[in-house]
Amino acid sequence: QVQLVESGGGLVQPGGSLRLSCAASGFTFRHFYMSWVRQASGKGLEWVSSIYSDNTYYADSVKGRFTISRDNAKNTLYLQMNSLGPLDTAVYYCNAHVTVVGGAFDYWGQGTQVTVSS
Fold first, then answer.
1. How far apart (Å, rounded) are the C-alpha atoms in residues 22 and 75?
2. Contact 9, 17 (CB under 8 A)
3. What is the greatest pairwise CA distance in the chain?
4. What is the structure's pLDDT at 33?
5. Phi, psi dihedrals of residue 78, rounded to the nearest 5°
6. pLDDT, tens digit, for every residue of 29-38?
7. What is the CA angle 57-76-35, rounded to 5?
8. DSSP strand E in 1-118: where?
9. How far apart are CA 70 and CA 1, in angstroms?
10. Which residue, 3, 45, 57, is CA-closest to 25?
């Protein structure tokens, strides 16, 4: 059974930091392209960051503030978020993606709420 379980969200003041985690199970984690995607209230999904092997990618809105990483031995994805601002308030989702011959697989976590407010 595939599971992605996010944790680490919460309420933080502007300028603060949070570290999100996504614990994966039920699939071969190291083979998957992993991403963080967020959704602010009333808005659509916004891609935040992705990682595959040693390659990392960031949306312009978070570049220089967020750091994505993964521990394949622990089947866990991370997102270190620094210098947080109100516009970072959203539900953050973990996504696992792999393309195989004949199709692709996408898995999603349930999300973790990040609220940046004073």
1. 8
2. no
3. 49
4. 95
5. -130, 155
6. 999 999 999 9
7. 30
8. 3-7, 10-12, 18-25, 33-39, 45-52, 55-58, 66-71, 76-81, 90-100, 103-108, 112-116
9. 21
10. 3
**pLDDT tens-digit map of 58-99:** 999 999 999 999 999 999 999 999 999 999 999 999 999 988
Looking at residues 17-24, what average pLDDT do you find?
98
Whole-number Cα distances in Å, 98 to 18, 39, 78: 27, 22, 18
The single residue listed with the structure tokens 């503030």 is 65
CB count, 10 Å around CB of 78? Answer: 19
Structure tokens at 78: 């991370």
Q: How far apart are CA 8 and CA 93, in angstroms?
A: 12
Tokens for 62?
């978070």
How many helices (DSSP H) and strands (DSSP E) are in the chain? Answer: 0, 11
